[in-house]
Design a protein that fits this description.
Elements: H1 2-27, H2 30-50, H3 53-57, H4 62-70, H5 74-90, H6 99-118, H7 134-137
Helix pairs in contact: 1-2, 1-6, 2-5, 5-6
Length: 139
């Protein structure tokens, strides 16, 4: 359930990031533009965290790969999503925008990963998303 909510958060980050970038450029709200770009960057980070197959097929640096691989436990994912959610909540400083929806979903995802960690549930990657040995099958 948490990885599915993570994918939903990724989609929202992409959609709301692009929408707020376009909107803030027309209204000249620089603070919102900065937070919209951060939302878009969060979406790209989530893509690599939730779909490990992409680390194998996309040309990324070894430093980036190592940073993404550090976010492999439920607690680390909860922390990463919590930080991304907090950043989007701070966007309220520039005015109330739809970035708050991304913040809410990122926070819900963080809570789900935290609960999974507290319950002692091991992270199980979905074959659909490139986990559970799929990445090893293509090499």
């Amino acid at each position: 359930y948490h990885s599915r909510i993570g994918i939903l958060s990724m989609i929202l980050c992409f959609a709301l990031g692009i929408a707020n970038i376009v909107s803030s450029l027309f209204t000249l709200r620089i603070v919102i533009t900065i937070f919209a770009v951060l939302c878009l960057v969060s979406g790209f980070i989530i893509v690599f965290v939730e779909i490990p197959l992409l680390l194998r097929i996309c040309p990324t640096s070894s430093g980036f790969d190592a940073a993404i691989r550090r976010v492999s436990t439920n607690y680390m994912r909860a922390g990463a999503y919590g930080v991304m959610g907090a950043l989007q909540f701070i966007s309220i400083v520039g005015g109330a925008t739809s970035l708050v929806a991304a913040a809410v979903f990122l926070t819900i995802t963080a809570i789900c990963y935290l609960l999974a960690g507290l319950k002692g549930q091991a992270f199980v990657g979905s074959k659909t998303l490139g986990g559970a040995g799929v990445a090893q099958m293509i090499v």
